[in-house]
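Sequence in, structure out. Go.
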Amino acid sequence: MNTIPKILITAPSFDERENVSGVVSVVRLIMKLPGYSFTHFRLGRRDNERSGIFWLMSQIGSLFSFVRVVGRFDLVHISYSLNPPSILRDFFYGLLARLFGKKLIVHVHGGKYLTRKPDNFLLNAMIRQLLRYAHRVLVLSAREEQLLQENYGHYPVSILPNCVEFPADIQRSENSGPHLRLLFFGRIHESKGIWDICEAMKILVQQKENVILDVYGKGPEQERFIASCSLAMGERFRYRGVASGSEKWKVLASYDVLLLPSRYGEGLPMAMLEAMAVGLVVVVTDDASITTVIEDGTNGILVQKNDPRALAEKISFLAGNRALVQAIGEKARQTIRSQFTVDNYLYRLDSIYKQLV
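Output:
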C-alpha cells in the first residue's frame, strides 16, 4: 500500500502581523501541491524582534523541537536565504536532517551572499557544507545557478522560478487623477532600497512632480522610514500598514508603479511578480534573478543601485508619460500570465519531489 510522502518545510511565521515575507507566499503555495502531506516548521525572526537571551533560548528550543519531529518525515525542505542569521541557523537543521537519514532540499531565496561570497571563512564554509548536504538545491533562475557555481561550487541544482497565484478577475483601477500613484510593498529594510526611495521623493517634491507614495509593510526600519518620508512629502505620503489575502490584490490594483530599488539580497521578489500580475510598472534594480524577467522599458523599468537621483529621474519620466505606464503595465501582466503560472510551478516541483521520495 502506497503512503503519502510527508514533507517538513521551513518558513517564517505565516502570521503577517509578525512577518512580511515573500518566502511565506511561496511556501503557502507549495503546501497546496496534492499528493503530499506538508507540515510547516516555523523558522526565522519576527519583524522587529530583537536579539537577546530570550531570543537565543527560543532558537535552541526550536532545534530540540526539530529533533523531536523530523523522524516522522520523508523529506525536509529548507527555505534558505544567504544572510548571516539564516546561514548560521539552517546549517544545523540541514545537518540534523541528514543525521536522521532524511532527503533534503535547500531552496535558495536570495540573500546578501547570493551574488558575492562572504569574507568570513566560517560563513563561507557553512554555506558550502549545507549545499553539500542537500540532495537537491533549488534556485530561481539560470543566473542564480551560475552565481552559486562561481561562489560556492557545483551541486545538484534544479531551477524553479517563483510564480504568482492571483484572482482571475483582478483589474487595476484606472488613474483619472493628476498624481502618479507610487507604492512600496514589502519588508521595510535598507536592503530593499528604502532610503533611496526617501531621497528620490525629496528630489521629486523639490521638482514639484505630481506623485504620491503609499507604503505597506513592516520591518526593522519602519518607524524611521515612515518619519523621514512624512517629513519629505507631507500629505503626499501615507503609511497604510500590512495588507494580506484578498486585500493585497485590491491594494496592488490601486496603484500605477511599484518601487523596489533593492540594494542587495533579492532572488525573484514576490512583490515584483504580484505587482506585474495586476499591471503595475515595476521600478527595480539588477539583482540576482530580476533581469531574467524584466526587459527595461518593455515590461518594467531598471534603475541603478544606490542612486536616488537616477530613481527620481525614472519616476519623473513615468509621471510625464502616462500612456507608456499603461503599455508597460499591460506587457508586465502578459509576462506573468504566460511564464509564471501556478500549474507549471507545481508540476515542476512535483517532478523534483518524485525524484527524491
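Check: The CA atoms of residues 205 and 233 lie 7 Å apart. The domain at 180-339 is CATH 3.40.50.2000 (Rossmann fold).
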